[in-house]
Amino acid sequence: MKEIMSSNVIVQKKFSMKKMLEIHQVAKKINGTTYLYSKQKTVDATVLPKLVSFLLTFEPQSTLKIIVEGTEAETNLEKLTTMLTNDASVVQIGNKRMLQSPGSFQL
Q1: What is the CATH number of domain 2-97?
Q2: pTM of the model
């Protein structure tokens, strides 16, 4: 069954290109979808050009929401959150949401 989980982190400094590639690689390995959200902008972390553009314009000391959807959302969210803890402080890890229908819904 698919799950959706999110985590809010406050990013302390600008992302390096190496860190952007690490985020992209982890997102590509996840069996599901990973989104980053901040200031009414959302990006799919598996699309490298959009991810780089999004993170280059990201301001330090801002909140970044990591949203993971998939069969092992909690484990995958922990991987991403742990990876970002060097550059960010975790504000909140959200609740798990279960999807039982193959349809879509709006958050």
Answers
A1: 3.30.1340.10
A2: 0.76
